[in-house]
């Protein structure tokens, strides 16, 4: 996570596995491929935040406490970590609203013809089901497809600006995603499990 000056405030850039919450009129930004970012806000208590998760679920449990691990990479933990941080800042879970982005099939892994769900597909299904179960309304979304997105969440009015990335950025994003998945598979196999990502 890094903070950069932006107009009269600052812009917080979050990476995969990270989240950020604030009561200030800041801008939270991230770059998404198959990952999903949930932009949550409590308009009554003026708290907002964003996460960026790589996978909807863990494939195997570890005995590491969530806060000391990379659990932010996984949707279920990323959502709870963000919601808990927002509540510490004064948000009420009953007031939360969501805007969600990402889940693109940027690696075009479905082109093998067997029609399995991609990582992006699973992430999109997860965020929809999680929000429905938690009674958090999703006011808007730009999910799925085959493109990456730059997402900017504005804390002054909770608007979200989404820019589809160009072809040069798309290649960089594809290379980055391949590195994430290889790292995740390697970590999973070291822990004695087998992993299949599509």
Structure description:
The chain has 198 residues and is of the alpha+beta class. The protein has a single domain, classed as 60s Ribosomal Protein L30, Chain: A. The protein has 3 helices and 10 strands; from the N terminus they run ββββββαβαβββα. The protein has helices at residues 75-88, 119-133, 167-190; strands at 2-6, 9-13, 19-22, 27-32, 36-42, 47-51, 97-102, 138-143, 149-154, 160-164. The strands form 2 sheets. The chain has a 5-stranded mixed beta sheet, with no helix packed on it. A 5-stranded mixed beta sheet has the order 3-6-5-7-8, with helices on one face. Mean pLDDT is 81; it is low at 59-71 and 191-198.
How is this fold's topology laid out?
Blueprint: E1 2-6, E2 9-13, E3 19-22, E4 27-32, E5 36-42, E6 47-51, H1 75-88, E7 97-102, H2 119-133, E8 138-143, E9 149-154, E10 160-164, H3 167-190
Task: Offer a quick outline of the entry.
The protein is an alpha+beta fold and 198 residues long. The chain is 27% helix and 28% strand.
């Amino acid at each position: 996570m890094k903070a950069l000056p932006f107009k009269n405030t600052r812009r917080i850039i979050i990476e995969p596995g990270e989240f950020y919450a604030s009561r200030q009129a800041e801008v939270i930004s991230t770059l998404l491929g198959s990952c999903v970012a949930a932009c949550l806000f409590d308009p009554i208590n003026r708290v907002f935040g964003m996460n960026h998760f790589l996978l909807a679920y863990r494939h195997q449990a570890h005995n590491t406490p969530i806060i000391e691990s990379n659990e932010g990479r996984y949707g279920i933990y990323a959502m709870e970590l963000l919601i808990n941080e927002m509540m510490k800042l004064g948000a009420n879970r009953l007031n939360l609203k969501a805007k969600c982005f990402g889940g693109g099939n940027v690696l075009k892994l479905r082109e093998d013809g067997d029609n399995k769900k991609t990582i992006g597909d699973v992430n999109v299904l997860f965020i929809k089901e999680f929000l429905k179960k938690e009674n958090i309304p999703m006011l808007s979304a730009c999910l799925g497809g085959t493109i990456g997105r730059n997402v900017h969440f504005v804390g002054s009015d909770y608007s979200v600006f989404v820019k589809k990335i160009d072809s040069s950025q798309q290649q960089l994003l594809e290379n980055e995603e391949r590195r994430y998945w290889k790292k995740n598979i390697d970590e999973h196999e070291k822990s004695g499990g087998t992993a299949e990502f599509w």
